Amino acid sequence: MAPAKKRNVSSAKTTEQSAKTAKIDLNTKVDRILESRKNANDVFDILEFLQSEKEKDVVNAVSACSKLFCTLLENKELFLGKLPGEEEALSGEYSAEEKYRMFMRHRYNSCVEMLLEHLSHELHSVKESALCCLMKFAAAEGQHPLEDLDWTEHYSFPRELIQAVVDRLLSKTTDNSLLISRFQEFLEMEDVRFYVMSSIRESVGQVMDKSKGALVPIYQNNVFTLMSNISVPSKESELTNFMVKQEAKHEDWKAAKLNEHKRVFERMWLGFLKYKLPSNMYKKILVILHDSILPHMSKPTLMIDFLTAAYEVGGAISLLALNGLFVLIHQHNLDYPDFYKKLYNLLEPSVFHVKYRARFFHLANIFLSSSHLPVYLVAAFAKRLARLALTAPPTALLIVLPFIYNLIRRHPSCRVLVHKPSTEDELLEDPYLMDEEDPAQCRALESSLWEIKTLQKHYHPDVSKAAVSINTPLPEQEDDISEVLEITTYELMERDLKQTQIKSVPLEFETATQLLKGGGDVLAQHFCLE
């Protein structure tokens, strides 16, 4: 076994040495090309390494290409303007200088194509090095444009290269989440972010139109991952970090205006959301919608259609849509006629078991805080919650009971549910209609909160204690439910187990020190007489 081990070590050393030799050889070739144009054909050797099957060779070749072509761009040694074909360049009446620049421009284009292909490479290190190299090319092209234009009248930015990079990141067959997270570094630059947003919108339109509305899960997931990494600054003064600084008219550039950023951000998201999405993606979007999307839009009300459609879906998606709807109703005066009816129907047994329970009750508490709500509506919510409480877990009951008490405090007319006068011909059946979807027709005001009376016999002491408090007049101050919204069964058990036990129980105010004092003589006489 020992000789075999030595052979493995020696082969590893040989591989490492060959990689180092290749790197030195590539760097030497780059230096030779930059020193003299006679060595221009050495660029083919570098591009050949770029197509190698060995990881280190490819990474070294990417580094060499980065150094070579960035230097050529800075020295303006690449052909500017519309590039003639290679055969035309050789046969046409061009000077030796122009032919050299055309030759190198063609090699540069070949290098870019290979790097774009490497963004789909199976090895992440190759993908990452290719991405970083392409962004270096983009920065160099921005400073030294390859288009022959009057740059005092136009804005210089490598839009085509950025579009090509975005198209490769948004693969239809490969999950590029890791590579996109690496790309996030470049999204911190204002101009890159601006043109990436435009590129995403164009890509989504083309791909989804070709699919004719059918789901493209991997592609859509890549799009969402990239878009969710984009955030727009809140103030125009924060737009300071640019990859390309325009020499003239920088202030008039769209990429330097906050309103334009918001407009492109808005169009990007609306363009994505108008197509059918995987169901799990609805949840991901709705979770970040109120924090990361609506504040950056120029017209948040354009999200009404998406939010109302999500609200109608039901289940967890409807719960999550509440946040966005709350922002639109509270801050942008959205009118949603059947909002409370839909909110009422969201109260189902499953609401106590979803992971968004805390968020739902927090928002429901806000929506039901207005004192202008009709009494029948508040009574319907209180009664439905009380009925659901009969089968709810203790952690949910510690939320529901204070929630109901707060509704009664805000709306004194609902006290009739607690102090329902009894009559001789009192009905044995509850008139409340649990299956009625319209809170106005459920007959909640004709019923009572007998369910809370039942919960006074609950097995958990905290629940029974909370239920008993309805037997006495409720204090005016509302209960703070925020403290119990996030409580879990584990925390509840831990709290019960850690309750301090009373070590000693005081029996009297004064401790007896001589219990038989004064009785000793009597006892002695008694024994003597016997």
Describe this structure in words.
The chain has helices at residues 2-35, 42-50, 55-74, 86-91, 96-118, 124-143, 159-169, 177-183, 190-210, 217-228, 258-273, 279-293, 304-313, 315-332, 339-345, 357-367, 375-389, 394-410, 450-455, 461-468, 489-497, 520-529. The protein has 530 residues and is mainly α. 31% of the residues are buried. Residues 1-14 have low confidence and may be disordered.
Radius of gyration: 37 Å
Largest sheet: none
Task: Classify the beta-strand content into a percent band.
Answer: under 5%
Measured distance between first and last alpha carbons = 101 Å
**Mean model confidence by pLDDT:** 84
Query: Which geometry do the CA atoms define?
Result: elongated
Give the topology, please.
Layout lengths: L1 H34 L6 H9 L4 H20 L11 H6 L4 H23 L5 H20 L15 H11 L7 H7 L6 H21 L6 H12 L29 H16 L5 H15 L10 H10 L1 H18 L6 H7 L11 H11 L7 H15 L4 H17 L39 H6 L5 H8 L20 H9 L22 H10 L1
Provide a brief overview of the structure:
The chain is built from 22 helices and no strands. The protein is mainly alpha-helical.
Spell out the key features of this protein.
0% strand; 530 residues; 22 helices; single chain; mainly alpha
